Amino acid sequence: MDCFASLAMTAASHGALPEEFSMKLTFSPASPFARKVRIAAIELGLIDKIEFIPSTVAPGTANDEYSKITPLKKLPVLITNDGDVILDSYVIVEYLNETAGGSLIPDYGRRRWQVKTDHSLINGMLDSMLLCRYEKAVRPQGLQWPAWNDDHWNRAWTGMARFEKRDDVLGGPLDIVQIGIVCVLGYADFRFADCGWRKAYPKLDKFHQKMLERPSVKISVPPAA
Questions:
Q1: What is the C-alpha to C-alpha distance for residues 113 and 109, in angstroms, rounded to an integer?
Q2: What is the mean pLDDT of residues 156-177?
Q3: Which of 121, 145, 147, 220 is the most exposed place for a label (fewest CB within 10 A)?
């Protein structure tokens, strides 16, 4: 039985996980969404409670066993000790934050909604960057749509421009928005190394360099493409 089948059975049966781990996370070192969860888990002191299951999903490629865990066939997915399946990187971080009694996501008030809104922008930027990656690397030649690609890249680029002006975010306490920005910039380095974001956005560059001093950020940098 492969790891996906085992995970699917655990989720379907709500069976308990081995005592040494209380959670399982499907991930890929290349996924900015999974990186977000990894950084949060380290910062919250939960990294040793999670068993990381290397997983591969790709558009146009069937993965029936993984689809039993989530029909969306996306990374990451968290399976709790009770066998509950938690989807979406934000929801997973929110679960981990609540479990650890952390402060990565505010509990209430105006700042909570600001953080959630900023994070929604970040997730949209990452979605667009991933679509650009697929358009160039996966879609067959002759079927690519340059205007569609440019539109999605512009969404990510103008999102960076917005955060370049957000001194309150870049200079504030560590939260899910800062972690998300790190994942955006790290993915830009990983898949779009020549895009020039550092020259265009010096404040983001300074922020990124400072964040790389954190062990959680440094050790989760994607491998060389």
A1: 7
A2: 98
A3: 147
Residue the block writes with tokens 């970040």: 122
Determine the Cα–Cα distance for residues 175 and 102; give it in Å rounded to an integer. Answer: 10
125, two tokens: 């930027």
Q: Which two tokens stand for residue 98?
A: 């609540």
Other Cβ atoms less than 10 A from the Cβ of 77: the count is 26
Task: State the Cα–Cα distance between residues 59 and 39, nearest whole angstrom.
Answer: 26
Tokens 């020259």 belong to: 199
Which domains are seen in the chain, by residue range? 3-100 (3.40.30.10), 110-215 (1.20.1050.10)
**Other CB atoms within 10 Å distance of the CB of residue 80:** 18
Joined tokens for residue 11: 């989720």
Q: How far, CA to CA in Å, does 85 sit from each of 7, 14, 26, 30?
A: 10, 9, 11, 22
Query: What pLDDT is attached to residue 189?
Result: 97
Q: Whole-prediction pTM value?
A: 0.90
The tokens for 150 are 């440019």
| Dist. CA 5–CA 67, nearest whole Å | 10
